[in-house]
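step: validate -> pass
step: tokenize input -> pass
step: predict -> running
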Amino acid sequence: MSRADHVAGAAAKLGKLVEIERCASSDELLEAAFSDAVSPAICTNEGATSHARWSRISTPGFAGHPSLEEIDRYTRAAAASGAR
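step: predict -> pass
step: emit ->
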């Protein structure tokens, strides 16, 4: 994958996260990320579409990533509460 393809993919993922979080812009998303200990996050691996809330004080795990169970638990809780 070329650097240009990687940058384009990252930009698309950022746009998707802005949409998921119902923000008006990437600036609004960044503001939200820096104003709380838990930030919106999206996996940057090629082909991955997982998104979750990410704590700066994350649970230890492989490369500091949340487990699939943590992501699933958050996704289900957010869907049940109607949270963004």
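step: describe -> Strands lie at 38-42, 51-55.
step: cleanup -> pass
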